[in-house]
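Researcher: Let's run the pair from yesterday's discussion. Sequence first, then tokens, for each.
Model: Starting with the first of the pair.
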Amino acid sequence: MDWQERIIIDPKILVGKPIIKGTRLAVEFIVELMAQGWAETEILRNYPGITHDDIAACLKYASNILKAEKIYPFQLLQA
């Protein structure tokens, strides 16, 4: 499944946060619900406009963003 079919970024919606297409539900919000222990069935029951594939797309998007994250350690010089 390609998350790009379900996750969009539109500067006019939630200030450009990635959202589930056709909703105002941010990827961040769905991932946070899952991090708090919500089961997929709870999310689907409380937000009937989304599907299993939408939730999977949120997780895939988050995974791709974390894989692309780069950390560059640096050392401060003493004056």
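Model: Moving on to the second of the pair.
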Amino acid sequence: MTSIGFYIVKENKPDAANILVCRLAAKAYQKKMTMYIYTDSEHRLQKLDEMLWTFKQGSFIPHARLEAHDDLAPIKLGMIEPDITADMLVNLCDEVPKFFSSFPKMAEIVPVSRKPKGRKRYAFYKDRGYVLKTHPV
């Protein structure tokens, strides 16, 4: 069963949630894990693609957009249901991804401004018996 963590981003700065995603990706990469970052916004996809190159001085997290078909990149980003397997899914959408249960771990990123929609997703998972952890950031 998928392990689900809710990351509540309390900081209201424009890139706070994206920086958290980059930190999670860096941690996954250090642990030699694979990750799929799922969003429903082309703008956000481009922003994350750029930030994964530059978010931290001297760091680079190997990544690729899903449609690039780069099988070597441990971190993938996309807006579609993936045809890949990965150790972790990061959900940046307001809806529950239909494919979430095919991942062993999932991180729900919830900016404080979108907390009501995050609560709906939390209730969805809880009603289905998933074990949930909350991480205020």
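Researcher: Give me one sentence on the second I can quote.
Model: The first strand starts at residue 3 and ends at 9.
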